[in-house]
Fold this sequence. Notes:
Structural class: mainly alpha
Number of helices: 19
Strand content: under 5%
Shape: globular
Distance between the termini: 8 Å
Helix content: 55-70%
Largest sheet: 2 strands, antiparallel
Amino acid sequence: MWAGTLKAGKQVMAQAETGPQGSRAAGQPAAVTEGRQEMARELGWYASFSVAFGFVSIATGIFTTYGAVLATSGPRGIWAWPISVIGQLAIALVFGALAARIPISGYSYQWVSRIVGPVWGWIMGWISFAFLGVVVVAVDYTIASTILPELFRYIGTTQNAWLITAGVVLLQALLVAISTRTTHRVNNVAVTMQLIGMIALTVLLFAVGAFTGKLDFAHLFESGTVPASGYYGLGGATEAGPFALAFLLGAFTIVGFESAANLAEETKDPARVIPRAMVQAVLSLGVLGFLFLIAVTAAAGRIDGVGASATPVATVITAVLGSVIGKILLVLVVISIFSCGLVITLSGTRLVYAMSRDERFPGWRLLKRIDRRTATPLNATVFMMLIAQIILAVFSRSTDALFELFSAATLLPAVIYAGTVAMYAAKRHSLPPSKGFSLGRWEIPVLVLAAVWLVYELLIFRDASFSAPWIYVLVLCGIGAVYLAVLIIRRGRDSLTMPDMADVDRALDTAGTAPVGAAAERTFQ
Length: 525
């Protein structure tokens, strides 16, 4: 049961509306009735898949990090991609098993709070907030710094990249604030266009490149300007080896699939739909992304100046496919990246809303509100937009802003994933059975694979080039630590108590067969 100053459990569960069916018809809009703040359960499989697919967005990740991989690892660095995909797939399977048990907005924050303890859950939620704040800037900055200069043939600077990114962040926040349904419609269209566009782009690069003799498959195995000696070495105490740094390409790109779990309260039959959507998104993106990387890298071997280009992927596309077709496809890539930022903004607002609803976030009284006109957490959306603008202002002054942004946006999810996987491994025997998704006999192999991958990934960040991301992480964690200390001092540790696992499971089981308020009241009295 809830303790201290938290609301009664029945009210929280009525707000969360976490049952498999929900108490309202799926098509009904969100409502604010009888003091309860609710959001409609109207998302199906494709919407859930689109959220996971749109957040990951191989177009975003590859356009953002490919230049850095060429510089630190050379062309053969792309072979780190399939290994990264396997590691991230193991994490997605663990997250799927948790999402099937606790389908509530806030994913890792909710899971850790209920399974390990409220303080650890709060820490996980705050780290997730720090990640979502920086990753939306990293994604949107990609549009301004790597694609638009190639598309419109102008010289990119830190100033114009700052202005363009700020405008994109604002537009995404407006869409999320206006209507959740509109946001998902825009994202569904954008994801469909991304699928069509990336498949078409990959096929055209292979076909046109082969026809014009611009494919050099031997280039896939070259180290480029990176010395071949010690290429696969682990590196030293403060530096990672060349091949190790190549893993950042997959580690940055294949993240965010868990965003589907962050919309669990708005998804129909979330215990079954969300795990499958996450796994299918990782698999499809992994295969398509690797084919695209092979096509781009093979073509780059016959094109002069790619290594020195600030926009190497865009340069290859334009050189192989010509200016007109190349620009059309680059427009599709811009739409894909915009969709990615849109989903991140949506996911960030839901996390802030979930923590505020539990009275655990700075300014929770304002940020937990659902706007009557838009039926969205409007204040939380504005808050996330302002945080993104502040982060943009801090990083955009650097000439290496894109690398610093994507590095921070790779480090933080690795920490989140590591904490969540460790929690699952430690508490898996005490979890209730899932009716939607289970790892079964593959549980131990999946956990071992996920753990090995995460340890290796986190060790990459010992490299001295990641000092700026570490500073960002430490500053944000320091701010969070101060707020958590104030929260505990003012209200006591018991005020952070969450419902125990058995209560949550019973509430989820019964909410679909009785009115939400009644189910929760039976559970928490």
